[in-house]
Records
---
Amino acid sequence: MASDGAEAPRVRFSPAPSGNLHVGSARTALFNWIHARKTGGTFILRIEDTDAATARPELVDQVLDTLRWLGTEWDEGPYRQSERADLYTAAVDKLLANGSAYRCDCTTEDVDARAQAAGRKTPGYDGFCRDRELPAATSTAVRFRTPDDGEVAFDDVIRGHVSFPAADVVDFVIQRADGSAIFLLANAVDDLDMRVTHVIRGEDLLNTVPKQLLVMQALGHDLPVYAHLPLLVDEGRKKLSKRRHSVGVNEYRERGYLPAAFTNFLATLGWGPPDGVEIRPMGEIVELFELADVTKSGAFFDAKKLDHFNGEYLRALDLDAFVEGVARFLPFAIDDRFRTLAPLVQERCVTFADAGEMVEFLYRDEPEIDPASWDKAMQGPAAEVLDAAIAEFEGVDAAGWNSGRLHEVLAAIGERLGLKLAKAQAPVRVAVTGKSVGPPLFESLEVLGRDATVARLRAARSRLGPS
RNA sequence: GCCCCCAUCGUCCAGAGGCCUAGGACGCCGCCCUUUCAAGGCGGUAACGGGGAUUCGAAUUCCCCUGGGGGCACCA
């Protein structure tokens, strides 16, 4: 890398501080991070909070926290645009001075009204104030003067050559009337100032490139290389919306997904390793990753596939790590009973949050009966099974109360009643755990203990009524 | 309305002119294993949007159409 003497790459992730980081943003952050690691470059974090109206300083920490959880640690920053206003003002002054920008006092209403009067169907500014030479005032914003003809073109690492007719790029605001900078300006100035070499971001920003290129050129600097990632879309192929989906990374974090599984999955959205092995350590992904290999079309965030990834990662955890990780998702403290069942629970979890469901029966005085499970299990010879189980289990002495023994006992009962073990265990399972699914029954009963087991069987039997 | 981008199984990726009767993964279906449920094993379903052109040969190149998406703010 950098054998041509070029400087090491510098990339940046520049989220707006909107709190709960969007999964699409997380993917963008990840790809930036991967590219930096791959190339020995620097990953810069910059918070884009130039809009005082929407900036929520208190939410910045949440973004940082999420990034840390994902493992996409930054090398430089975080910078905050709200603290760099002088830089933007200086840039605007320079553009004003060299004729690249001018003041404008048109309101949005003025612009729309003129467009309507002129019968134009294309929205946008018409250059009304270009030559009015307005003085600075509290009501004037600053607009960038775009070329009237020619084209603005660039080579995107992922998309190839992209060009726009310059005439379609209307004069745009770079500084608000209150003197604050607009994203287009701040973003360009910062990329220049931070010597960013590769701008890796979502495709929704592809259309802003010409404007930013124009600003950068007017400021007289070398231009960064752009790479626009395909958007993450919903099942309707629309940009993932906060309205209808769990698009916040925090939701996944709270539901017990593992950061390694989550980032591994994100890495397969818009990119795939050449050998087709999708589930693998991030270190390998970093090695294999090439920005130019990124796909061009939108990718659906498939929660089912994420679940599969997470299940794989969860099962790969050693037992201690699983127990430690699952702890904060359980509504009760980890004890020996949980530890005993843990290996069986781990095998059956997709996320940490699933574990509680499987063992909660241990921590209640009485099982919470699921009606559907009850109806299904308490049919046919259920009463006989329960009666026999009560009688037999009661006779097992405390020292012999273990899963192997219980297995034998219930198998014998089943045999006597002409039932397969699977059938015979159903009423017992529901009576004791309240559900028709869960960890293996005999291990569960062993951990629950004889007295509690028998008490629950009796309770279920009486609830069942006379046979 | 205008501009830009995109187009392989339901989904995510492979495929950079012959190796493709298109491969892997998730999902789904079936079978096996089995103490329920998972996990695991085995098998199956399923795609190159349409039309031209180039070529001996096109999923791969070019053009048009269609379809989808994104953008066009004193938001980012």
Note: The longest strand of chain A covers residues 42-47.
---
Amino acid sequence: MSQPGGVAADQLRAIVERIEKLEEEKQTIADDIKDVYAEAKANGYDTKIIRTVVRLRKQDSAERQEQEALLDLYMHALGMVLPDTSET
Amino acid sequence: MSQPGGVAADQLRAIVERIEKLEEEKQTIADDIKDVYAEAKANGYDTKIIRTVVRLRKQDSAERQEQEALLDLYMHALGMVLPDTSET
Amino acid sequence: MSQPGGVAADQLRAIVERIEKLEEEKQTIADDIKDVYAEAKANGYDTKIIRTVVRLRKQDSAERQEQEALLDLYMHALGMVLPDTSET
Amino acid sequence: MSQPGGVAADQLRAIVERIEKLEEEKQTIADDIKDVYAEAKANGYDTKIIRTVVRLRKQDSAERQEQEALLDLYMHALGMVLPDTSET
DNA sequence: TCGCCTGATAGTTGCC
DNA sequence: GGCAACTATCAGGCGA
């Protein structure tokens, strides 16, 4: 059965509730992160620096991926295709 | 002994790693949420509206009414009238 | 003469610079907008509501009604009733 | 005269209109940017690569600023303050 | 041409 | 209370 004009209430409700449950879990973790920062601060660390460190580490790995993507992009632009590593 | 200028490297490392682990978990959940929306869309639901529903449910109704009152005030000041949601 | 593998470097450079110049201008205007909001706030206005007003004015009213109808449908399916915007 | 409960309609209207005018200008520039990309594509360039180039150039300059900020941060953490260049 | 997906923008929340 | 980071939303571009 299809949707607009006769919505399947049960299915809709299930969807909304799954989302709400996941968002709640996400919020819990966000709170945990905040706690870690608070604890760090209580131990005398400068949280601003820690945040920067965390950000830079993430950025580094993102950058590495970007380099690969860029290489890939150029290769395609030159009409060359990298042999796929996974295969049938 | 205390921190800046002689930092307890192990403790600092532990902090950073705890944060990174938590952020990873948080990202996993965020991805799960995206999946639920994708599934909903695949089943013919309008995800934009579902997002609105989720947001409205989260929003405290007292706060909601307060905002609406102020919005109403501003709209009137501009000579605009909000289209009534209820209708004959 | 054609492009990939012998790129017209000058033309490419010109393109990139035009884009960068336009993006700079765009950023300048974005900053101006921020200034207007800041000024409004300094004059005692609630910027959150002003943003809402601006958004509503931009939104085509037909589209708005359509969204509201669908939202209404979903809310009913969940057994929730939208608080009426008009009131005694 | 103050705001909530007697909003200065003229001032409010002026604010909203200034914002709308600026947003319109911003949109015009955004459209110009789109045009440049379209023209580039018509001339045989790969717009995806151009977008990447533009993004990387922006990122580079942002990164340079970040390095400076980070240095500054560490200096402060070590209790060293860079002699302010401007002073009374 | 349509639908998906990524990148840009706007809004919210937390820190200083 | 202002500023900055982060998140969520939206729109435009790309590929099928």
Note: Confidence is low (pLDDT under 50) at residues 1-5 of chain A.
---
Amino acid sequence: MTAIRVTVDIVLLTIRDGHLNALLIKRMAKPFENRYALPGGFVLEQESLDDAAIRELREEAGVDRVYLEQLYTFGDPERDPRGRVITVAYYALVPHTQTPRAGTDASDAAWFPATDLPPLAFDHREIVEYAHTRLRNKLDYTNVGFGLLPEKFTLTELQLVHEAILGQRLDKRNFRRKIIQKGIVKPIKEWRRTGRKPAQLYRFGR
Amino acid sequence: MTAIRVTVDIVLLTIRDGHLNALLIKRMAKPFENRYALPGGFVLEQESLDDAAIRELREEAGVDRVYLEQLYTFGDPERDPRGRVITVAYYALVPHTQTPRAGTDASDAAWFPATDLPPLAFDHREIVEYAHTRLRNKLDYTNVGFGLLPEKFTLTELQLVHEAILGQRLDKRNFRRKIIQKGIVKPIKEWRRTGRKPAQLYRFGR
DNA sequence: TCAAAAGTGTTGAAGATACACCCATGG
DNA sequence: CCATGGGTGTATCTTCAACACTTTTGA
């Protein structure tokens, strides 16, 4: 019972060109050498699980201030060929504007569409799917979508985030009404003029 | 990093006389000697987390076929004075009809109202509150309430379960309409005649 | 015949959905 | 002046909340 080791793995998600993407890192070491895997690693003796996840995100994905939430703990005795390793899975959200560069100790980090993943190491595919489901479910009774946007954003950008996560188009008028009625965004006196008609910027409020 | 030990702890819930109750066990050993704690214990090297929870429920609470769901993993480095122990928390539901007896290796098991707990060992109070919150949230978008009822039940009994979990009275007509429209219960051709007007029995369907 | 729990419908409010056109700007 | 994405309102339907009386039985 003392021979169990504990890792954290993090599903880092962002929106890239209208699709939900997850960051994966190509493994250098065995097992699953050259396979893609989630950023993550062993929990240190003196750090909390959340701190371990934050540390791994910084070390392996080069990202710092993200929305982070514990997902589920995967503990099948056969899930890791090296022995008994349970993993506490997290998911994290970053705006794609602060593009995470590949970290230092990871050979190769890359974004993949959450619905079109390469073969993954361990049970990591299941973990990504779990994260996607959780995010979809939380989308409309929480403000979780804001983790995927920069501080200032247009309502169209927010709608694209929702569409990417839900995998379906939404009606512009209904979407805007719902968001505004919830009172969780407030318009600021700035406009993004990106060639076309300028779009009003909003901020996540309170 | 290998010195982390892993336990499971289970919040076993039932409805007793209209209130949500949790099963607690008085600890014999240090630390927290004589304090109440959740049933649980160390995960064995060859068992999954779910299996560990099922085993502990059988050993410590004497219950067998229950609804069981993983809750959250608590991993604060200071949460256990004996050293680094993380716990994967579960919650489980039993109908109060199959009253669990106190198990064998537990000195003293007893039911306590979930809203009026004695002082608990470790961070177990937080875990019970987390379980209560989860159950409340899942109540109306899942069928989770059925775990607390025997196979055959009346709609009034089902309503009492919901009221106990939510902590508020519900309108009988609205409740029955909603449940029946969901199509998750089906009436059977049996009536419970308990002194008053006989009540139709239902079964959880499909 | 009384006490106790079972059972049953309607109305109004709020929220969700469907749907189409005009506007401001840069090129 | 045209192409592009920004922005707006209404009608309908569905869902939820409030609300009170009749029925069946055992004592």
Note: The mean pLDDT of chain B is 93.
---
Amino acid sequence: MPELPEVETIRRGLTATVLGRRVERVGAVWPASLRGPIEGGLVGRHLIGIRRRGKLLVGDLSDGGHVLVHLMMTGQLVVVEDGRILFAGGHPTRSMLGPMPNRTTRVILELTGGRVLYFNDQRKFGRLWLVDDAGLAADPFLARLGPEPLEPAFTLSAFRAQLRRHARAPVKAVLLNQTVVAGIGNIYADESLHLARVHPGRKAASLSSAESRRLRAAIRTTLALAVESGGTSFAEYVNAARGRQGYLTQARAFRREGLPCVVCGTTMKRIRVAGRGTTVCPRCQRSP
DNA sequence: CACTTGACCTGTCCGC
DNA sequence: TGCGGACAGGTCAAGT
């Protein structure tokens, strides 16, 4: 579920609530959510840094080592102290604001000061695992990630090279490919393609020079705006941008099927591209 | 190698 | 109301 803007929002929320704390106890409620044992490498360590790479959260530990968290579709991270929720981010559900743990709780990290970090995950796709310092660079998932879309490394020429490399794939599939660029998921792929006026089903190699330029710019604009907005939120979503509306009110495509295109008023259509539900404006985004 | 499809899970919604 | 099927903000393995 969470894409780059949501994970970045979570990173900021965790930085504000758990950075610097020591892990006192680990509860593996659903061990399958773990890749290998974590207790030995976590207990007694301080969280000395919280970073993000694509959709992956990286917690840096004192005395070496890192804890990696991928929330996949339905993961959430909730920070609680004395029964009060200090931060909740990730897949939005009503229960994420209720008592912890709940039936979706998979891993519990008890921290100093009575603060507790809950890793919840309804569909059990998310994973939490530990690597040592050497293992961080060698981690197979991390190592294959493409450039950060908001960093300078995501150049136009690199993006065009990837469009050529995946010439026959629909351009949306290329955007979702984390080795091409890290952090785009189903929402922001649709958002970016709509802003760039490119149909998601177009073969990647068929994009004109102007279209590929527009698409790269649209990705950066969309993600930057979404980060600024605290990610895409639902009504009961709680995040670091609490009190703000979130990106949803500015959505161009996400959940807008059947509604008028924000640009031309044409009714937005739901189609299937690269095996994923996809929303397009049939007028602004011409079919392949 | 490029690309597509299905599996992994649980919950919800929709049509009959 | 009850049930089956489709689908969901992601990734990987196995298939063509």
Note: The two ends of chain A are 28 Å apart (CA to CA).
